[in-house]
Amino acid sequence: MREFSFFVYLMASRWNGTLYCGVTNDLLRRVVEHREGTAEGFTAKYGVSRLVWFEQHSDIHEAILREKRIKKWNREWKVRLIEERNREWRDLAVDLGLEPLPGVIPAEAGIQVGCGGSVQRSGSPPSRG
């Protein structure tokens, strides 16, 4: 019996930028489509081309349910999900074998922090499932 892998993923336009959540059975192909702008619509319009988070599932129904739940989350919960494993918002597609995006600006570039130097986050995302 053939096993399938499905991926729920988050793409970003840049550090702390516009986010997109999707599901696919071929993560590399889908990331390339987002990068090249052949994935028409939202991601092409807003330049969302950096893979910042993903998880693998063996069941398509589980993957679709997870994607739908994440899409309903508020932005803060999505950011926390990304930063649990990818604090710097690196393009994880590079780790999967794709070339780095041209002209990528380091995550910290242009960030100004007021006195005290920290950003507070509150609340917690719903549990997985």
Question: Top keywords for this entry?
Answer:
129 residues, alpha+beta, GIY-YIG endonuclease, 4 helices, globular
Explain what you see.
The chain is of the alpha+beta class and 129 residues long. The chain has 4 helices and 3 strands; from the N terminus they run ββααβαα. The protein starts with 5 loop residues before the first strand and ends in a 44-residue tail after the last helix. Residues 105-123 have low confidence and may be disordered.
Structural class: alpha+beta
Mean pLDDT, to the nearest integer, reads 84
Helix fraction, binned, reads 25-40%
**Major sheet: arrangement of strands:** 2-1-3
Note the topology.
Blueprint lengths: L5 E7 L6 E6 L2 H10 L5 H5 L3 E8 L2 H13 L2 H11 L44
Antiparallel strand pairs: 1-2, 1-3
